[in-house]
Amino acid sequence: MYSFLFYLILEVVGWMFLILSFMVIFIYLVMMILSSLEMRDYLRKNQFADYGDIITSPIAPGVSILAPAYNEGQTIVQNVKSLLSLHYGKFEVIVINDGSKDDTLEKLIQSFELEKSDFAYHAEIESKPIRGVYKSTNMSYRRLIVIDKENGGKADALNAGINAAHLEILACIDVDCILSSDSISRMVRPFMEETNKKVIAVGGVIGIANNCDVQDGTVTTYRVPETTLGRFQVIEYFRAFLMGRMAWARVNGLMLISGAFGFFRTDIVRKVGGYFPKTVGEDMELVVRMRRYMCEENIPYKVGYVPDPLCWTEVPESKDVLARQRNRWMRGTIETLQLHRKIKLNRKYGILGTVSYPFWSLFEKNAPIIEILGLIYTSILIFVGDFSAIYFIALLLMMYLLSLLVSSFSVLYEQIAFNHYKDKKDLRKLIWMILTEPLWMHPMVVWWGLKGHWDFIKGKGGWGSMIRKGFKTAEDRKNLSTQSIS
Amino acid sequence: MKKILIIEDDLLISSLVQFRLKKDGYETYLVKDGNEGIKAIDTLSPDLIITDVMMPFRSGIEIIHHAKKSLPQTPIIVLSSLGEEEQVVLEAFNLGVADFVPKPFNPNELAIRVKRALS
Amino acid sequence: MKKSLLSILLGFCIAVGKLFAQDILPKDSTEWMNFLHIQNQVPGLGYQLTFSPSLDSLRAKNLNLNLSKTDSGWVSDIREDFGIFSQLQQDSLDFQLTYFIFSSQNTEEAVREYISNLMRNGDFDPVTEKVKPKEDLVAMAVKSPYSPVFGNRYTFTADLKLFVVTVIIGFFFMVALLMILVMLFLKARKNRREILRKEYDQMIVDPLTTLLFEKELDELSNMKIAEYDPYFPQSYLSKPLYQDVLIHRIIGLNKKMKGEFKEKLKTIYHQLGLDQVSAAKIKQSKWHIIAEGLVEINEMDLVETLREVKKLSDSSNFHVRSLAVSALLNLSEKSDLSFLRDQTYPLSDWQQMNYLRIIKFVSAQKQLKIEMLFESKNMSIRIFGIKLVRMLGRVDLLERLAEMATLASNEEKIEILQTYEEIGAHMEVDFINQCLKSEDLDVVKQAIETSKSLGNEASVELLSGLLENLEDFSLRLLILKSIHELDKTKFDELTLNRGNSTFVEIRNHILDPKLIYV
User: Fold this and answer.
1) Nearest CA to CA, how far is A316 from chain C (Å)?
2) C258 and B13: CB-CB below 8 Å?
3) ipTM of the assembly?
4) Which of C205, C206, C261 sits opposite B107 (nearest CB)?
5) Across all residues in chain B, what is the average pLDDT?
6) Which residues of chain B are within 8 Å of residue C260 when distances are taken between CB atoms?
7) Do B104 and C260 touch (CB under 8 A)?
8) CA–CA separation, A352 and A251 (whole Å)
9) What span, in angstroms and rounded, lies between the C-alpha atoms of C266 and C251?
10) What is the pLDDT at residue B85?
11) With contacts defined as CB-CB under 8 Å, which chain B residues touch A50?
12) Helices A367-384, A2-47: inter-axial angle, 10-degree rounding
């Protein structure tokens, strides 16, 4: 009897893995097609756009740039200067000093001739207490607002910034990002273009600036990073930003906009109650909550995406930092999905509930677990001496080939659309990376993901019960914050 | 013969300007980006510089800075599609450029301005 | 649900197992004997042999079965090895079997049941007979008909898992190969085009420059196509890519040139027949080609195509629609805006921005009939019309605005208020005050904003009333800003000595000179 059950389970699990791998292959192929269609349309569209117009037009919306800073004393002045010199007509730069322990605030005060103002700050969204709002006495820095507050983390700092923002669109960025001077005008375009839907957010591509030459806020010469970890991330970013998000944008299913470079409609952000500071995945959580709000209010909406290279950042090239980042990403994903599990397979939430959510929970959240199970399964088959083990080894090989295909597709795709890495040597390095990455980098990423799962279960981040319960509606978050104020 | 350096990334524009100035008997040199422009300023020491402000690699402002430092007597004419009230253009004027020609422009008009700047 | 499904499945499998086990046990008695013989031993199963009494005692002894004589005949001990059957069969002895399961006597039927039970539980694995071929294998193979396809397909599909895996892999390789090939092809084509483009670019620069400087305008328009041949050879002109590069170049230059050069470029464009190319483009079905054609028409003033362009102005494609309207605004001789008025699609901000730029440019030459837009059935068009009044400073249309203001929707009211504010329409203060009493919060907000510069005593009263009723912080800030502008004493009265810290905060904010731009 026992042995029979054992074999039955082996059989059933085996079929499950087969179906799953078929799905993975199918989905990736579909994604490739969708993303190329979207990219083609985008490049065509771009031919007919005059971005010079947006800068001065009275019809273009105003943009509040929110840049939270924590211990950035070394670079803050230079970074704020380049933010202030962006090519756009109507914008303000709100730097939020999130209780830095270094001289970030002092440097800002000194360089931009700031003085504490009587700014009537109103905490519509709850955040840690504000110590002061600074403005410059110099007219050339009139766009700058500096908020000094007690430390509360990135999301908390952004919330303080949202409270002080005046303009129609919020641009949430990492202060150490390199922004191309026309980044605002390009990112604002999707907000202006839609006729019968409300565009609630627009995401952008993050490029990797390690080892590249930067001049006047634009990367002029691209070179692949020196370390293998850096190169791996180049491939990964291509896959994520050029292929994945592009495909999701095509079907209006985008669930994540990078916290380092995302644009949002201010009124909607305020309506849903801003960022949720208790999750480590605040960027994803906000987008999901905004989308959920729009569905619940029955307003047609869209989340846009701009594939132009406009923002660059230095990615971590040390293993420890990368491990921590991935662990955090995984926890952020789990937390967001957990919080909003109500939308799972719920027709009311359209693509978000029926496609994006299941995809994320199967292929992003549970992927490491599935992969490990698959490995264990195959080893059991080998151990038992089951002949079908050979299929699963073949399937593993297939997955390797799929990864090769997807990666090389992304690289080729980048070559056709933008062609940044012009040096043949760089291309060769990338190709070598594509070949070897699944063998040693991927297992590490899986491992870090598993650790993220483990840390989530252990309740790292220390706010367990709230996420496990989840919001009943998107409105709850809003109520939550107003309750705690009153 | 006066030497004129033209820094402009649009090949057609620069060759039009070159053609027109050659007719007036100037010796003209074309470069197509900021890096080459800075090099050419040092090696040629031209009598007049015509430059765009928005170009690959180096901004026109950097070039003007450089030219004013190494050849303070050389007049500079800025050729740009930006409006006269733009921040960059104002900055260029502050650095002491001789003239500003907004695009769209007429090469004949430019030739007159060149003559005036050199006299 | 899942559990019950699983148990049904399990039950089904067990049933199948049972059937399977009983099938293996032979029905007919010689086969049965044979079966037992091959097993040699079955755990817990014993038997007794009974020979007829006629068997002589010497033979009974020779069998070595330890037989003892009873009334019914010779009876053996309870044995467990069925191996001796072969010997008995050889001797063609007649005997009877009595079965014992764990030493208790049982029928053959019970034994069958018992063995199948054992098999089902996996406690006993029957040995199947290894029949040695009686004939030569090769000879046997020759006899059986050869049918490789059928046979292979059978075993192949029988193993479903193998089949599925192969299908997946096959599918994957096909698509992967296709994709890579397409990508490589695209990249190669792109590279080839890039190289050709550069080449053509070089070929075009010199002739175009010389033509522009050496020929006068009327010379150019009198030149035959053959006379252009030394500059732009006919053999190249027929190539689409060359055409494309040339069009691009001429348009690019046209944007950056002034005066006679613009005219010359347009003449060259016509003389080379490139206007035909552009006109043909807008009859294509692909939107991006139509759009390209529209851009060319717009830049090169190809007025002869305007009838066609007008048809595209209500196209379902966003880009085609926008570019067609842009071209019409730019090129149309008349100041008639009916094509814009009759648009059925809502106008996006992006389109408004583009149209505004063109209208600003065009209205320097001719007075456009913006008031036509107020009659549109499409609200976004009416709103755009109101915006235009503001952005072009058309004070002459303020009366028309006042006429439509009372019946307007809330969105239009907001725009009208904004327009009043920017133009400084002091005579409309009653309307502003009326809006301060509106139900719609957005209208009220704009009215507060507008009253800052246009309000009167009545507005101050209304604003003070609003201040008491509205809780919203940002609205209070807005109201107090307006009151501050209109009536300083009222402002002091409202904000000082009221024991309300919010009002003091707002007061300080408004009075802080650093915050004028906030």
Assistant:
1) 31
2) no
3) 0.87
4) C261
5) 85
6) 106
7) no
8) 10
9) 9
10) 62
11) none
12) 140
Per residue in A46-58, pLDDT (tens digit) is 888 888 788 888 8
- Give B23→chain A minimum CA distance, Å: 34
Which of A6-18 are b and which e, b meaning 16 or more Cβ less than 10 Å from the residue's Cβ? eeeebeebbeebb
* Nearest-neighbour CA in chain C from B109: distance (Å): 10
Low-confidence ranges of chain C (pLDDT < 50): 1-3, 5-6, 9-10, 12-19, 147-157
Contact C161 A53 (CB under 8 A): no
User: Cβ of C258 and B105 within 8 Å?
Assistant: yes
Q: Does position A462 have pLDDT exceeding 50, yes or no?
A: no
pTM above 0.80, yes or no: no
- Give the dihedral sign, CA C490/C495/C498/C500: positive
Neighbours of chain A (3+ CB pairs under 8 A): B, C
HSE, CB side, 13 Å, CA atoms: give it for residue A434: 22
Measured between alpha carbons, how far is C375 from C448 in angstroms, rounded to an integer? 28
- The residue-averaged pLDDT of A312-319 equals 90
**DSSP three-state, residue A207:** strand
Select from C506, C461, C456, C507 the least CA-distant residue to C486.
C456
Residue with the larger pLDDT of the pair A169 and A481: A169
Residue that has been written with the tokens 């430019």 in this structure: B110
Q: State the average pLDDT over residues A298-318.
A: 92
Burial A467-480 (b: 16+ CB within 10 A, else e): beeebeebbebbee
Q: Is C216 within 8 Å of chain B by CB?
A: no
The residue of A51, A53, A87 whose CB has the most chain B CBs within 10 angstroms, and thus the best one to mutate to test that interface, is: A87
Structure-block tokens of residue C147: 């049918």
Rounded Cα gap, residues A375 and A450, in angstroms: 14
Predicted confidence (pLDDT) per residue in A218-269, tens digit: 777 889 999 999 999 999 999 999 899 999 999 999 999 998 999 999 999 9
Q: What is the dihedral of CA A130, A131, A135, A136, to 10 degrees?
A: -150
- Which residues 3-62 of B have a C-beta within 8 angstroms of C? 10-13, 15-16, 19-20, 23
Segment A447-452 mean pLDDT: 93
pLDDT digits (tens, 9 = 90+) for A28-39: 989 999 999 999
Structure tokens at A467: 């996420």
Say whether C256 and B19 touch across the interface (CB within 8 A).
Answer: no
CA A86 to chain centre: 22
